[in-house]
Amino acid sequence: MELRIVRRLIPEWGTTYGPPGEGPFPAVMVLHGSEGAWSGWSHRNAAILAAHGFLAFPFGYSSGGNAWNAGHIVDCPLDRTAQALAALREFPFVGPRVGLYGVSRGAEHALLLASLMAKEAMAGLPEAIAAHSPPDVVCGGFDARSFRDAGDPGWQSWDGGKRAWTWKGSAEGLLPTTPIEVERYPGPLFLSHGLKDRLWSVDMTRRLEKRLLAHERQPDVHYYEGEDHLPGSEGENRHHELLIDFFERHLG
Q: Which residues does UniProt assign to the signal peptide (predicted)?
């Protein structure tokens, strides 16, 4: 029996999921959210993409943690993600077009990385980016050990005293509330958000859309009626239909 989804290792970087055969395949780097690299959600999302013809690379960027603890997103070096993206491009099974897909903090990560790479005119920009439940500004550092439910008194979704991201060893320009300069990225963008998101307001995506339109950009934007930060079964099925169609059009 031939497997329909095959794991392949990028030495020193991590595993990928893709179709059987020699390729080359259109590729997507998958960026997890605050659930962390150990939770497995990014691997599950990568397997869904792999089932539809993409070579998907779930890149774990959170620090610490284990199967029971998500770890943290503090002083995460975005330039290391740029290096991982370059390693994905050099992988023998990967074709000439590579995309980025991030959810929540992963969406923030994807948009920030693209804006910084574009700002510095770096080679290897992703050919397409999808961001689900993204913020429109840089958010603070996150440590799962201090996370509490939104109903707890004094709750906050991140520890504002810490920085989430660095770029080439510095957090300058990446302080919380700094607008993400998504308009710098010249490629196709997919933005989606649940209208009933209780964690990050859908107004964040609306502001991203408004800013892109003001710069004469035409992003693919989808608002999901009745869906929370992460969509339920029916909503997720529709999200994946739209997401896969987007990547097929721009990477396929």
A: none
